[in-house]
Automatic annotation (TrEMBL):
Residues annotated as domain Ig-like: 185-285
Natural source organism: Ceratotherium simum simum (Southern white rhinoceros)
Protein name, entry field: T-cell surface glycoprotein CD1a-like
Keyword Protein transport recorded: no
Transmembrane segments: 301-322
Record-linked PANTHER family: MHC CLASS I-RELATED, T-CELL SURFACE GLYCOPROTEIN CD1A
Secretion signal span: 1-18
Coiled-coil region list: none
Keyword Ligase found: no
Pfam families recorded: C1-set (PF07654), MHC_I_3 (PF16497)
Keywords: Glycoprotein, Membrane, Signal, Transmembrane, Transmembrane helix
């Protein structure tokens, strides 16, 4: 079987052991999303992720790996990466062929999508954990546990059929276990070592205030924007004096293109209560300091701008009116005499 052949290409790649420098569990996973349109047309997207940071992507048709960061190679040699490219290419062919075969055996129907995630997670002080999960049409379908493929509870007969095909390759299952439960942790520790300076960098956040859509008459939606910070953990809160103001809501963290993060913190308040509020930001890059933005100052700045602009608008209008009046007097309209 092609699936057995591709797994036999696995090479065990050495890694470092500096994971203790990172205080939270970290994971690396390969993700492939495949869209099956018919027996001869499919689309595959492949990527590699260190936690929430994408580190690799590849062109599935050729298996070419693209390194998104200078340290994405970890401590692997070029020869080892070439072997891995061959592995990924054959994996894409062999694994997906099983799903095409399932269609021909009337177990699946075109079109459909398959999502695969395989990798490992380091729990410091405990043994590392490998995992392989497969989803069909966005729902859990298969998983790899104890050297065997198992159908998900809601996978039904379709998942059982695919598991039977995969489990028929005994040697392949052993190599697959070695790849994700032994090789992956070593790869991950080497990647952490190579990217240590980047991953542990401290980038100070920038913060500013604005208003969102009005939640109702006499109310304001205050928005505190915080952007460009790294690492991800951050504390942002609307305060009244030294007390946290109840009702603060946070958006999801959004990634910036440079690997930093962006966050919005909202507060729905009575307009008359907004003047005494402030947004506080605490982050590891700030040390013992914090960023404090006072809404009353933000509001006062708006009044200052308004106070400057409005007289200029009035003066411009007055000048235009005077010029028009002067032009009328200088060149009054005259009536031509009738012949």
């Amino acid at each position: 079987m092609l699936f057995l052949q591709l797994l036999l290409l696995v090479v065990l790649l050495p890694g470092g052991d500096n994971k203790d420098d990172f205080q939270e569990p970290v994971s690396f996973q390969l993700i492939q999303i495949s869209s099956f349109y018919n027996h001869s047309l499919e689309e595959n997207l492949g990527s590699g992720w260190l936690g929430e940071l994408q580190t690799h992507r590849w062109v599935s048709n050729s298996g070419t790996i693209i390194f998104l960061w200078p340290w994405s190679k970890g401590n692997f040699s070029n020869e080892e990466w070439m072997d891995l490219e061959d592995l990924l290419h054959m994996f894409s062919i062999g694994f997906l062929q099983i799903f095409h075969n399932s269609v021909s055996q009337r177990q699946l129907e075109y079109p459909f999508k398959v999502q695969l995630a395989g990798g490992c997670e380091l729990h410091f002080g405990e043994a590392s954990v490998g995992f392989i999960r497969v989803a069909y049409q966005g729902s859990d379908f298969l998983s790899f546990q104890n050297r065997a493929w198992l159908p998900s509870p809601n996978g039904g007969s379709r998942a059982q059929h695919v598991c039977t095909l995969l489990n028929s390759a005994t040697v392949a299952r052993e190599i697959l276990h070695k790849l994700f439960f032994e090789t992956c942790p070593r790869f991950l520790t080497g990647l952490l070592d190579a990217g240590k300076a980047y991953l542990q960098r401290q980038v100070r956040p920038e913060a500013w205030l604005s208003t969102g859509p009005s939640p109702g008459p006499g109310r304001l939606m205050l928005v505190c924007h915080v952007s460009g910070f790294h690492p991800k953990p951050i504390w942002v809160m609307w305060m009244q004096g030294e007390q946290e103001y109840p009702g603060t809501q946070r958006s999801d963290f959004l990634p910036n293109a440079d690997g930093t993060w962006y966050l919005q913190v909202f507060l729905d308040v009575e307009a008359i209560e907004a003047a005494g509020l402030s947004c506080h930001v605490r982050h590891s890059s700030l040390g013992d300091q914090e960023i404090i933005l006072f809404w009353e100052r933000h509001n006062s700045m708006g009044l200052i701008i308004l106070a400057v602009i409005m007289p200029l608008v009035l003066l411009t209008g007055l000048a235009f009116w005077l010029r028009k009046r002067w032009t009328y007097r200088e060149f009054p309209s005259t009536s031509l005499p009738l012949e």
